[in-house]
Specification:
By secondary structure, the chain is an alpha/beta fold. It has 14 helices and 18 strands. The strands form three sheets. Strands 3, 5, 6, 9, 10, 17 and 18 form a seven-stranded mixed β-sheet that branches. α7 crosses α8, α7 packs across α13 and α8 packs parallel to α9. The longest helix has 14 residues. The chain is globular.
Amino acid sequence: MRAAVIHGPRDVRVEDRPDPTVLTPGDAVVRVVAACVCGSDLWPYRGVTTVRRPRPIGHELVGVVEELGSDVTSAQVGDFVILPFTMSCGECQSCRAGYPAACDLVTGFGSTDRWGNPVDGAQGERVRIPLAQHSLFPVGRPEAELEAAGLVPHLLTLADVMSTGYHAAFSAGVSAGDTVVVVGDGAVGLSGVIGARLLGAERIVAMSRHDDRAALAREFGATDVVAERGEEGLAAVRDLLDGDLADAALECVGTKQSMDTALDVVRGGGRVGFVGVPNGGPELSVRRLFDRNVTIGGGMASARRYMETLLPDVLSGAIVPGKVFDLELPLGDVGEAYAAMDERRATKVLLRP
């Protein structure tokens, strides 16, 4: 089979890989229908994180089950499934509490059942899925029907970005009547706008410097857009809100500036939900939180948990998060997919094997 392999900074290639097989009774093999490039994939692509050896890459996919281990009863061969970007057992304390992204079996005890290590990345033709009993999320409709309805891109967002954007809003305690500022206009930030609207926010300010992304943010439910950054951005938010600040902010980037901005734009007693992967040096001053009674929560989203909440809205068309994909390419053009996102020529790229 063919799959994307990252060799180093700005070097992603499609290579032949061994076809995956069921290795344990808890495994599944899934044929990939669609995958995509994530903003966090750009960290190794840009050299921010080190690629120690060539490895498969990608962690977002939808596909069809081709083979199941004997212990897997949550799905059947032929089912169209979504794969969350973190695998989980469904039985440990973290999973039972609703945080499968923090699954004790995967994160706490040295397991290597992670995308690309040694599990093949999602940007390929087929993938072996360990911990399949809980990790597989059947949609309940056949592939042909979903393709005909144009739902595949929207379902794919539930694997990561839509669930992550919702997690930002949920972690910030967004509720009916709130004013929310969304920091970041990538796919996660745009999804955060949807999440804030679903949770009842009355006013949503999207911070965006790109006309196309700002327009999509408005389509998703943003009531206002602020293009400025730093002190000018804070002043613009205050001006919009008649001198006030937001009840909550969603930090959807993962840099020091984005975290500072999120903390700046919330009122005393406000809340920040952070989901940006922290590779740009974000810092938290406990004194700053203490002095202003700001609550901060978030982290890696438990996509498997939110899929159950968000799936009905996707299937009904109430939300259309797949509009964050503004470029679709065949797997063979994966190098261009990464370059387009790196150079901000695309917000998010969908890959078809």
